[in-house]
Amino acid sequence: MNLEVFVLGTSGMMPLPGRFLTSAMLRRDGELFLFDCGEGTQVSLKQLNLHWKKISTIFISHMHADHVTGLPGLLMLSSQVERDEPLYIYGPPKLQEYIESNRRILDMYINYEIIIKPVTGGLIIDNPQYTVHAVPLLHTKPCFGYVFAEKDRPGEFFPDRARALDIPMGPLWGRLQQGNSVTLDDGRVISPDQVIGPRRAGRKFAFVTDSMYLDYIADSVRDADLLLCEGMFTNDLLSDAREKRHMISSQAALIARNANVRKLGLIHYSPRYADRELRQLRDEAREIFPDTVLCRDGMCFDIPLKD
Ligand SMILES: [Zn+2]
Ligand SMILES: [Zn+2]
To answer: Where does residue 5 fall: left (phi above 0), alpha (psi -120 to 50 degrees), or beta otherwise?
Structure first.
């Protein structure tokens, strides 16, 4: 099953030519999950041929314009397509008022259900396939990171081992595959681990922006396959970053290293840096965490199954 992350934008504060506002899309088994929606996010969706209709859930980090002003336009796309499933939108408490007032003032015609879920942190989605946690961050407004984690899959079933143990093919195989022990006609009890390999780890994606550096972020994103984290400034602007409650790229790298993530993608760059100057952000991060990627608009990360 594919798990991909598309970088829809990488800019912080304002969109620039070739650098839309920070936003990302996770695609899993055809289902789309959008993280933040600044102005212009629709254009990136179009460029990457990602279909709005497939978005089941939107996660909003916080109520700053560079993260939410694309939302009304995105919701209005509904008049163009038929949609039966509701759209879930998670975010800080003010999100509800923001969406409702936009709908009212703009007389938005929306022909499907929008379910707004205010978050305060912790587990927000738990289904048989995956979980999503909201991670409280520290910014100038209430702000949340999001961690999407697939649940572990059962281990692989080995028919050869079942045959070697003279377990007759049929319902008994099924019960073992479901993790149950079975008793054979000859009285032997067979446990699932005799015919099934170890459980296979699910994949994890984390989206963290905007925040000042906090030690506990690493605990929340531990062992992520991909962490997209703001790295807004270079080292020399550490005190500015602190004051504005943002991070320098080497702090994002510190989180990545402490959390033992597989790969770090930097996002939410300050518009003060021209494209070629962003390399400095990356190089400073790589001194701490070598597997750091300077995200660019339109990039796609494929997160393969581990086994
Ligand atoms: Zn921002
Ligand atoms: Zn902000």
So the answer is: beta
